[in-house]
């Protein structure tokens, strides 16, 4: 994916920007990626999930493993439970990302530590030549800091425990989406109660 030097490519820089939502809608889509590392420029997506919510209730989901071009490290396998064997027959990124982007439609995207997921989404979409997803974005880290103050930190793992969802597996894209949705709904309810 070394198409060009992205540091000085204005098209790429503009493509990587996204708009933060100014509202807290009841219809939204939660996304999460599991990756081979932290850098969107040198690491790859190995699992992607998006769950659509209409009036706060799940309506549809898109979940798939993704076969990377390089091996998954033992560290990432320990963290996510995703092995090289598990992704050996999974589709490649160019086979699934176009459908994933289409699935997003124009819904507001919800993500925990949204800049991480958005960088992976936009970087990969750019290099595959896809039309830019122009969805507005909400980061539940910032919402949780404002509306869930009685926790020791605002990591998803901590918030999951606070919400009584400890039975859900961590660091898997689909379950992390579910937890993120519950964080968002709790924060949205708290916000709506405050303006009544």
UniProtKB/TrEMBL annotation:
Residues covered by the Exonuclease domain: 27-193
Keyword vocabulary terms for this entry: Exonuclease, Hydrolase, Nuclease
Superkingdom of source: Bacteria
Nuclease found in the keyword field: yes
Pfam families associated with the record: RNase_T (PF00929)
SUPFAM superfamilies: Ribonuclease H-like
Listed NCBIfam families: dnaq
Protein name: PolC-type DNA polymerase III
UniProt source species: Terrilactibacillus laevilacticus
Lineage of origin: Bacteria, Bacillati, Bacillota, Bacilli, Bacillales
